[in-house]
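Quick sanity check, Glycerol acyltransferase:
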Amino acid sequence: MKKLIGNLMLKLMGWKVVLQGDVNNLNRCILVVAPHTHNMEYILGNFSYWSLKKPLKIIIKDTHTKAWYGGIVKGLGGIGIDRSQKNDLVNFVASQFAKEDFSLVITPEGTRSWVPKWRKGFYHMALAAKVPIVLAAGDFKKNIIYLGYTIPYERIASVPFTEIMEEIQNYYIKNDITPKVPENWNPNIIGTEND
């Protein structure tokens, strides 16, 4: 049913999914979504995953999973965490991957506003969980969702962090992604020494 809804909604909204790697990599990965400038990216991402019949999860405040609508949130892939506590999020994510296979959505910008550089948590999560990093992007000029470019776990574990970040930065620059709110996107994800 989700596949039908996903395909129908993407068609009605005028969007298409372009796969840039093996679709099976979406079964178990850290899914890096960028640019993150608007909530519409999450909606489009969900429809894309539904259309491909792939499991998608996102970490959110546990107030949403514990609320009266918590069953719906969990059904849509929400994993609740208590942000008032000091959590070891990296190991928490690794423990979730030990239980089941899924793509975990991470937006390394950490906000929908402009940031000077990305946070590094997604990289450490992939290392701890021993899963690949898969890149995703929504191009609001072409109405295309790019999905599937994969950096295998073996590469993540064997090359310097800066090399991985350069590869990711080059991917987003090369694809010339137009976000929903262009002024909130900084393609220089590595930042500078002064950041």
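Posting the structure with no commentary besides this: The two ends are 46 Å apart (CA to CA).
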